[in-house]
Design goal:
By secondary structure, the protein is an alpha+beta fold. The protein has 3 domains: about 1-40; about 45-205, no CATH class; about 210-270, no CATH class. The chain has 8 helices and 11 strands. The protein has helices at about 1-40, 150-160, 175-185, 190-195, 200-205, 210-235, 240-250, 260-270; strands at about 45-50, 55-60, 60-65, 70-80, 90-100, 110, 115-120, 120-135, 140-150, 165-170, 170-175. The strands form 2 sheets. Strands 1, 2, 3, 4, 5, 8 and 9 form a 7-stranded antiparallel β-sheet that branches. Strand 4 and strand 5 form a beta hairpin. Helix 6 (about 210-235) runs antiparallel to helix 7 and helix 7 (about 240-250) runs antiparallel to helix 8.
């Protein structure tokens, strides 16, 4: 009886060890997957949104810490269609997550050796996640976010500064060069193309697509100009006034009727002489 009990206990111990070993392997596999995903994340991700007919370029997030406060920064720009455009403004996103509000109501600036960049024209939002643990282990986290539109010239200054810091109230966060290098790529068409995959390089480099709406507007405008040219030509075709044809050529120089208009003008000018 005792012998059988010892065998059962031994088998239970072996079984527990196997379970622990399997759990450890699964845990390590998850960590490895997350690590590889982080490593393969591009400095700037390029995503085309077909429903909106626009491309969103988003920098890889980076974090910076000061006095147990951690913030995350992401920059974005949007371009119509499938093109790399030069945006006048860049969207800078600043995030903070913890038990209590930190970003709300604080002044916000970036300090560089080239001067200060004011970031106080921003939109603030927050949401509460009851299922997430705060840093102190308690339930519930307040997720805060600033959406800030920064002029391209100011963003360029921050991206290329030798040293840059973000002031949030009395807290000063260093903005590491490694993180701001992604900002530089966002503003540089050549470097942006370099990190794209082969198909994206063809679409955005060799064969860029304009926005569908812009194409439709261009076609509509060309059609309207063509119709206006035809209507005007029908009105002046039999005119004996040279000024009518000069006006036509000024307004519609690329019209198919431009050649007969030039001939008619030359004929009328010859008759006057």
């Amino acid at each position: 009886m005792l012998f059988h009990l010892n065998i059962k206990l031994s088998l239970s111990v072996i079984l527990l060890k196997n379970i622990k070993s399997k759990i450890m392997r699964i845990y390590l596999l998850i960590l490895l997957t997350l690590f590889l995903a982080a490593c393969t994340l591009k400095p700037v991700e390029t995503v085309y949104h077909e429903d909106k007919d626009l491309t969103r370029f988003t920098t890889k997030p980076f974090t910076t810490v000061k006095k147990y406060k951690e913030i995350e920064l992401v920059a974005e720009k949007e371009c119509p269609g499938k093109v790399i455009c030069s945006e006048k403004e860049i969207k800078l996103i600043v995030k903070h997550s913890d038990r209590f509000a930190f970003l709300k109501g604080k002044d916000l600036q970036i300090e560089t050796e080239k001067g200060q960049i004011d970031l106080n024209q921003r939109n603030y939002s927050n949401s509460y996640d009851i299922n997430k643990l705060a840093k102190d282990g308690t339930d519930g986290v307040l997720n805060e976010k600033y959406l800030i539109w920064v002029s391209e010239s100011d963003f360029l200054k921050a991206a290329h500064a030798e040293e840059a810091e973000m002031n949030i109230g009395d807290y000063t966060f260093k903005l590491p060069v490694e993180g701001r290098t992604n900002w530089q790529i966002l503003l540089d068409k050549g470097r942006l193309l370099e990190i794209m995959d082969e198909e994206q390089q063809r679409e955005y480099g060799l064969f860029p697509h304009e926005a569908k709406k812009k194409k439709e507007l261009d076609l509509r405008e060309k059609r309207m100009v063509s119709e206006a040219a035809e209507s005007t030509w029908n009105l002046i075709e039999d005119s004996s006034n040279p000024e009518d044809f000069r006006y036509f050529l000024e307004q519609f120089p690329d019209s198919p009727y431009a050649i007969p208009a030039k001939l008619k003008l030359k004929q009328l000018e010859g008759e006057k002489q």
